[in-house]
């Protein structure tokens, strides 16, 4: 199997055939699936996307695959390099740092709005997710922990009550996903995440908008000197 077909764990999630996924064009479906695989860390920065292989995998011709690549390039998820084809975008270390800074402000704004608008139903859901994340931290399963962590942030996006803000935050989060996932492997990161989430929750639930913004921003930013070194080494 060539590099384009490998994931971070050695496999690519099974994809249903196109006829089983109604409601969008073939190109849009392929784009959505590949974007999920980049966001989950299954396709790492610098990975070459093989046009023929992807067409076979999705059971389509190369035409919608090329269009999917163009859509991903428009969202800055991949780079198109002429005859070399499409490659998952690999930004410079400085660009990654800047993306984390912007994303931290967007996530902070989500938390601020959530502190103003949270409903009892969403409060209960966030508490349940936090409990599940705490339980997952004891199992040391990075994949499960990462997925539940994503659900926590998604619930706060929903609590913020701004579809546009959630969309923009999610788009930038997807572009930094490979780096965020690697952070999860850092020593003591599980315990730190649990504590940081707890403080974010307390601020949101007490309707403290300033505290919600600052605690979420600090949680996402993670730009200590050690973190800068980590990003540079990952490059």
From TrEMBL:
- Polar residues bias: start-end ranges: 1-12
Q: List the SUPFAM superfamilies.
A: GntR ligand-binding domain-like, Winged helix' DNA-binding domain
Q: Extract the InterPro entries matched here.
A: GntR_C, TF_FadR/GntR_C, Tscrpt_reg_HTH_GntR, WH-like_DNA-bd_sf, WH_DNA-bd_sf
**Lineage top rank: taxon:** Bacteria
Domain HTH gntR-type, residue spans: 24-91
Instruction: Please give the start and end residues of each transmembrane region.
Output: none
Q: Where is this region: Disordered?
A: 1-26
Gene3D superfamilies to which the protein is assigned, alphabetical = GntR ligand-binding domain-like (1.20.120.530), Winged helix-like DNA-binding domain superfamily/Winged helix DNA-binding domain (1.10.10.10)
Alphabetic keyword roster: DNA-binding, Transcription, Transcription regulation
Q: Does the record bear Hydrolase in its keywords?
A: no
Pfam families reported in the protein's UniProt record: FCD, GntR
Q: What is this protein called?
A: FCD domain-containing protein
Native species of this protein? Acetobacter musti
């Amino acid at each position: 199997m060539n590099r384009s077909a490998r994931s971070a764990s050695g496999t690519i999630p099974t994809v249903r055939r196109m006829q089983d996924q109604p409601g969008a064009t073939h190109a849009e479906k392929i784009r959505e699936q590949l974007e999920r695989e980049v966001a989950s860390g299954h396709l790492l920065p610098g990975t070459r996307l093989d046009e023929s292989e992807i067409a076979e995998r999705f059971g389509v011709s190369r035409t919608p695959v090329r269009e999917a690549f163009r859509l991903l390039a428009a969202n800055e998820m991949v780079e198109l390099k002429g005859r070399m084809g499409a490659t998952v975008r690999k930004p410079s270390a400085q660009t990654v740092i800047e993306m984390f800074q912007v994303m931290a402000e967007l996530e902070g704004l989500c938390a601020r709005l959530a502190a103003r608008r949270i409903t009892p139903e969403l409060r209960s859901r966030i508490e349940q997710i936090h409990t599940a994340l705490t339980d997952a931290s004891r199992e040391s399963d990075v994949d499960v922990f990462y997925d539940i962590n994503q659900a926590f942030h998604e619930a706060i996006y929903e609590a913020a009550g701004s579809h546009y803000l959630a969309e923009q935050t999610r788009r930038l989060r997807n572009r930094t996903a490979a780096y965020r996932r690697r952070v999860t492997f850092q020593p003591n990161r599980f315990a730190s995440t649990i504590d940081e989430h707890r403080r974010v929750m307390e601020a949101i639930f007490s309707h403290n908008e300033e505290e919600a913004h600052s605690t979420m921003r600090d949680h996402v930013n993670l730009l200590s000197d050690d973190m800068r070194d980590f990003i540079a080494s990952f490059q």
